[in-house]
Amino acid sequence: MSSPLSFPVSCHSTCCFIDCQLYQFHYINENKTWTEAQQYCRENHTDLATVTNMKDMKRLINISAGYQREAWIGLNSKPEFNRTWFWSLSGAEFNESETNWKEGEPTDRGIKGSENCGIVYQDLRWGDQGCHWNESFLCYDEEKTWLKAQSYCREKHTDLISGTKQLQDGEVKKLMDFTNSKAYFGLFRDNCRWSDGNSFSFRHWNNDFNNPESNNKVILIKENKTWEEALTYCRGHHHDLVTITNMEDQIWIQEKVKNASTPFVWIGLHYIWSLRFWVWVSDEEVSYENWASPGQTDDCDVFGTMETGGEHKWLEKKGSQTFNFICSKY
């Protein structure tokens, strides 16, 4: 059918979006939430775009070239979606009865939900591992992260090895004899679904998504302080109150705030009452917005917060209130 710009996003912010008809993609240069974009595409075309392979991916990049803005696609994740294993190669169906897990695997050790990529050992038994580690992979013998390994294989060959038939090939055993002990293969899991109901497993995530290095740029402080106190704390102990300039920032910051002990957390937004506009403490322009309601107010003592639950929208709060807060480390 068709496909999307592969980028995992919250479905509640507003941005441009991509939809599709049979073998066609259309860039809709309007600001809508994911749900509004889905409704628009279904009413005027077919659905939000679904991607099935790198060829579709390149077509999407071409039609969106020049816009330099994020755009919604048909991939979405909801709390009721369980994490499911997929093969990297679209069309290779994952069958739980044909797995070859090492004893005790998958372990899902560490941070809950962090081991989402498949690793194969020298005995061809499987394990799960965090996707950010550098490992050899079945396609080439250079160590890379799972995402980089997938990208390399798709560019130079077809994909990471996917499906039990490929893994049972005698050549795989010969290749594994030359590795240190284990290598990435095409097994991964997530809890995302396509809007049009397709089960295509193709993903092309931005490298910062679920990247611990990105998540380490910010820190949640579980102390209750006023906005001014939070600002002073961040500047004294870290760098500053956090600035959010795009959806990528929003996504990995909202994962942090889920562990807060208050219903809202302070972020680095403050309102310039005399000029009637919001600014970031970092002096960054407020180009990306995620307000629960338009951020206009006649109050001179309000600052920005993010919800710690629900849709993680931004809301204005009186500066005298006390909440947890998010600091940027650099």
UniProtKB/TrEMBL annotation:
<feature type="domain" description="C-type lectin">
    <location>
        <begin position="139"/>
        <end position="217"/>
    </location>
</feature>
<feature type="domain" description="C-type lectin">
    <location>
        <begin position="222"/>
        <end position="328"/>
    </location>
</feature>
<dbReference type="InterPro" id="IPR016186">
    <property type="entry name" value="C-type_lectin-like/link_sf"/>
</dbReference>
<feature type="domain" description="C-type lectin">
    <location>
        <begin position="25"/>
        <end position="140"/>
    </location>
</feature>
<dbReference type="InterPro" id="IPR018378">
    <property type="entry name" value="C-type_lectin_CS"/>
</dbReference>
<dbReference type="InterPro" id="IPR001304">
    <property type="entry name" value="C-type_lectin-like"/>
</dbReference>
<dbReference type="InterPro" id="IPR016187">
    <property type="entry name" value="CTDL_fold"/>
</dbReference>
<keyword id="KW-1015">Disulfide bond</keyword>
<dbReference type="Pfam" id="PF00059">
    <property type="entry name" value="Lectin_C"/>
</dbReference>
<protein>
    <submittedName>
        <fullName>C-type mannose receptor 2-like</fullName>
    </submittedName>
</protein>
